[in-house]
Each structure stands twice: as C-alpha cells, then as structure tokens.
Write a structure and sequence with these properties.
This protein has one domain. The longest helix has 28 residues. With 297 residues, it is α+β, with helices and mostly antiparallel strands. Helix 1 packs across helix 2. The N terminus is likely disordered.
Length: 297
Amino acid sequence: MKLTVREKEEPSLAFGGQAVIEGVMIRSKKHKVICVRQPNGKILTEVEEIRSVSEKHQVLKLPVLRGIVALFETMYLGIKGLYFSADAALEEEEEELDPKVLVLALVIGVVLAIFLFSVLPFFLTTLLNLRGVLFNVVEAAVRLSILLLYLASMALVGDLKRVFQYHGAEHTAINAYEAGVELSVLNAKEFSRFHPRCGTSFLLIVTLISILLFSIMPDVGFFARLAYRILLIPLISGISYEVLKLSDRYKESKVMKAFVAPGLGLQYLTTRKPNEQMIEVALEAVKQVHRLVEPSQ
C-alpha cells in the first residue's frame, strides 16, 4: 500500500517514549505526554511541561555528561508515568505523587539493576578464576545471559504482555512519525515494532562498552575491581548514550545497520505486535507532542 507522505521532521525533534500500563508515554525535549486507554474505552491524556536540569547547568549538555543526565531523568519520568497510568487504567482517583516516593522507587530500581547486571555477573565470573580480556568477555556474556533470562521471564508474565504490546505500538507510532507519513492507524500498521533508539538496544551497547572499558582497567584486587565496576556505571551509560545517538544519525549506513541488528533482535523479547486500539493510543500521544512542538518551530 502506498503511504500518504507529509513533510518529515527535523532530526532535532526526534521523540522518545515508553510503554506504560494500558498506554504510551511520548517525550520531546520540553514536554511529556501520556495517553492511557481507560476501561470505558476513552483515551485519557496527561500533558506535562518538563525542563531538564541541563537547561540550568550548560556543562551538563556536554557529550557523555548529557547521557548520564538523560538516563536518570528518563528513569524518573518513567516511574512517574507508570504511577499515573496505573491510576488511569484502574479509574482510581489520582492522588498527588510524593516526590520522595518517586525518588525511593528510583533508588530501589538503580540498586537492583546494579546488583543484577554488575555485582552478580562479576561475582559469578570470579568463580571461574579467569584473567585479563577473557575475564571481561565472559563477564559480559554472563551479564547478557542474565539480561536475556530476565527479559524472557518478564515475557512469560501474562499481565505484562499488554505492556509489551504497547511498547510495540510506541515504536510503530514513532517510526511512522519519523518516516513523515500521515499519522493514521492504517498507515502506522505498515511500520515495524522495532526501533534502534530503544532502551533494549541501549542495554546491549552498555554491555559492549563495558567490555572495552574494563579491558584497560588494572587488576588491583577483587574489591577494587568490583568498586570500579559500580562507580563507572554512569560513565559507561554516558558513552553508550553517545553511541546510541551516533547509530541513529547514521542508521542508513550498512555498517551501522549491522551494529544495531543485535539490539533490534533483542526487542523480540520486549515488544509484541500491537492491535489497532493500542496503535491509536500511541499515535494520539505522538500527535499531542507534535502539536506542542510545532508552534515553536
């Protein structure tokens, strides 16, 4: 089917997003929109103006540093969006969120992630009594295995299947937007549920960067090696963010397509094919963000 094409957007207006409970969150540089399908069939929309801390401190816009800031801001807004969507999907009366609760949820999430994907892989690999680059490669393989097992187990939870479908709907809507087509469900259905800027691809890039970085770090004992694996997480995340941006900028390159292919393959675990109602919700979120961005162009 031939798609109706509209004018493509500038790359600087690229949107990011996240699946939430029965809905999608789409974010631009200055706005966040959450659209949730309520039990009555209507779409509830929340619009919030956001301002990155990097707007106050220009130094945080520097490469690598901006990735560290983006990581924590994305996690914070993601948790906040999940709270809102849970209330909306259950049609409960929304209470004002206590920032302390959100920060606590963020801290718990970070601690669990550090344990699962940094401390545990390192500890298990030390049991094999390996050294040098081989240790780092095996550690990365263990980390990736834990990630795959984690994602596969999540996919088995019945209640999360719809979240993964909305994740696919989010990618479908953003792919349609970035292709410059008219944002209708019929058009959007023609696009993939996979996207190279997805957080799933980001996790794979983090694993590759960690192999390279840890390979040049000295072997100074068990506790010191464990310590810098934790302390260097922000740096690794910042570098991975720049690599992710670079992969998106040159996504038409054959080399870059080969580079992002494993990350796209990993999205088979974190996305499911969405239905038309889910795509409609995701498109509504994209349209709302676009309307907010358009006047400032």
